[in-house]
Amino acid sequence: MSDAAPTRHIVAAGGWSFGAAPDDPALNQYILDLAGVARPRVCFVPTASGDAQDHIIRFYSSFTRLSCVPTHLTLFNPGPPTADLRSLILDQQVIVVGGGNTKNLLALWREWGLDAIFREAWERGIVLSGVSAGAICWFEDGITDSIPGPLTPLKCLGYLKGANCPHYDREAERRPTFHRLLLEGRIAPGYAAEDGVALHFVGERLERAVSARPEARAFWVEQSGEAVTETPLELTRIP
User: Fold this and answer.
1) Where would you tag: which of 20, 106, 122, 180 has the fewest CB atoms within 10 A of its CB?
2) Domains plus CATH for the chain?
3) Residue 214: which pLDDT band, with cuts at 50, 70 and 90?
4) Contact at 8 Å (CB) between 192 and 216?
């Protein structure tokens, strides 16, 4: 009997919508494949959107076309039972966290104890993944539009070191805000991902950056003296 610790996966995507774009199914399948079983149990967590029904519908529309057993967890609206969140989460093999308001997501998860439950799931080898707010949340810092007004830094769960900035090509203020916050010392250096790129971490180490969009990019972003340096990440293209 092996005593080896489970492999811990986190996949943080700069932007994808499960099925609205041509590249989305490839990212969905990449995440499911990490579970290492033919039909993994996958749970969608739409907390950041306030359990928006259209997000839930889009998730099922996409994942029911793939070889998996989908379900979802709601904290706002009636849905799968929430009395025993720990058992529900630990029974899954893949977790997918949707986008929306990261500040609200973190507040609710901490109130319900999901911050600790997801860490336990990760340590057990359950694949954690997400997009936008669902990507930012796993890092020490994120750049968020959760608060009305300019983009702001946000302290997150800290499973992964550094900062994360999604939508690096689709939202004009993302890049200059990340640079400014670095120069002001208000955020840690970290990763920026364009839509269609997913950062795959094994443990706390970046294993690879994958993309189904040929033109998409990702970067390691850090302060260098009085300037900011963007180091392009090598991308693995997925069909």
Assistant:
1) 20
2) 9-237 (3.40.50.880)
3) confident
4) no
- What residue has token string 């990507």? 135
CA distance 228 to 163: 14
User: SS3 string of 191-239?
Assistant: EEECCCEEEEEECCEEEEEEECCCCCCEEEEEEECCEEEEEECCEEECC
> What confidence category does residue 13 fall into, taking pLDDT thresholds of 50, 70 and 90?
very high
Q: Does residue 13 sit in helix, strand or coil?
A: strand
**Looking at residues 37-64, what average pLDDT do you find?**
94
The answer to which of 20-29, 59-68, 211-220 has the lowest mean pLDDT is 20-29
In single-letter form, the type of residue at position 77 comes to N
Strands 190-193 and 160-165: parallel
- Active-site residues, by number, are 132, 167
Residue 72: DSSP 8-state: E
User: Going by C-beta distance under 8 Å and a sequence separation of 6 or more, which residues neighbour residue 15?
Assistant: 99, 131, 132, 166, 167, 170, 193, 194, 195, 196
Quick check: 210 and 198 in contact, CB under 8 A?
yes
Backbone phi, psi, residue 119, to 5°: -65, -40
pLDDT digits (tens, 9 = 90+) for 119-158: 999 999 999 999 999 999 999 999 998 888 889 999 999 9
Please name which of 12, 19, 99, 28 lies closest in space to residue 57, comparing C-alpha atoms.
19
Going by C-alpha positions, the residue among 212, 165, 192, 199 that lies closest to residue 19 is 212
Helix (H, G, I), strand (E, B) or coil at 50: coil
H-helix or E-strand spanning residue 41? strand 41-45
User: Residues 6 or more apart from 29 whose CB is under 8 A from it?
Assistant: 66
Cα 54 to chain centroid distance, Å, stands at 19
